[in-house]
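<amino_acid_chain>
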Amino acid sequence: MDNLPYLEIAGLVTALAYVLGVASAFEAMLKARTPQGAIAWTISLLLMPLLTVPVYLVFGRNRFDGYLEQRSDLEARSSALMSGRASVLRDYIVTPETPVFASLGELARMPTTRGNTVQLLIDGEQTFDSIAQGLERARAYILFQFYIIRDDRVGRRLGKLLCDRARSGVRVCLLYDEIGSYSFAGTRLHRELVQTGVEVVPFNTTQGRRNRLQLNFRNHRKVVVVDGREAWIGGLNVGDEYQYGDRRLGPWRDTHARIEGPAVHGAELAFATDWLWATRRVLDIDWDFSATGAGDCRVLVFPSDPASHYEEAGLMYHELIVSARERIWIASPYFVPDRAIISALQLAALRGVDVRVMIPEKAEGYVIAMANWSYTRELMPLGVKVYRYQGGFTHQKVVLMDDATAGVGTANFDNRSFRLNFEITLLVENRAFATQVHTMLEADFRLCRQVTLEDIEDKPAWFPFAMGAARLFAPLL
């Protein structure tokens, strides 16, 4: 008799789990972005609801619901902040000459602008020196956003400059991801920034009653803007490993870019939209913009996020691949594409395009490493060349299409960046800049070994099973 209440509780919990399992299964059938995902979630939710319902609530949602419902309003209010620039920007907005920029501009809801200068920054020393010099030049405002900010040598160096600028009257707005920088709020650097007047705000994807379990989404963007005149976008976060290397992975290979000109407006708009979500306050700074138009680069700032009805980052990569006629080179620390991307790469190789994929030799995790092997095995028989970087850990997110188009940004070549992360990519149409990217990647390829099918065939008998198991987790990687 004493055990009866516990049995009743267990029965109620089990019954509730099955009810939630059925409800979640219906939601998965309606909202899952792939048929495979819908089938997998539906079967597991119906058969094992006690185990899979909690997992589904955290990892099963592919769309950032709270942000999705408010996105158009957020963007409209952020865009209105800079409406005064319209007359200045109008002279620099161009009609794209290539279908790539036409379609991607529509998808990004951003204009392509001419008159930009773009500087390629290779690795941590160049990048952090450039950002530091830019922060020192700030006279009106600084917008500073990173997925990871650490209280270490690199973090304190840039943090000191932010504090100095704030003391001198410059408005400094700092935005960080609450999960990527989960320990940042408790650091001494965080306290010093707040005490000196820096507006420090986490981008909390769990904001709002409906979003408490949205732990699977990340704001992966890295954006710095100074006075509306110059901006930095790329793969580096604020941490020592990005300049001095990682003890396990070795030297860190990464790429960033600095832009001047009207394209800076796109970086500001992306930041202002994120700021409005995170704070529920309009970023009411004095937008002092005066485009010089001195550069010769056409630039499209391409933000992407899980609030869209479309997988924007995945479509961006897909468009670049199918549009390539001579080459498509992709460098990413993670290679976990979907079926459409795999097919596009295979077809590009079949039509004679030089298709190359560069990934690290050492992955950040075992499952990611197995997934990388699994997907590259599928591409090589049709002529896609896969290279594994031997010079340390390559973390850059770079794409080169033909002779005049290159992209540098934060979006990895994986399902997480395609579907779950807030990302931003700088797409540049300029032959000279593309040549610089070409030269940089050629130097990286010299530090790689090309993968062959024999490499996989020589693996132990358990290896194919490990690759297959890793693919099951592809939507979460």
In short: Residues 114 and 298 are 4 Å apart (CA to CA). The domain at 312-476 is CATH 3.30.870.10 (Endonuclease; Chain A). The chain is about 45% helix and 20% strand.
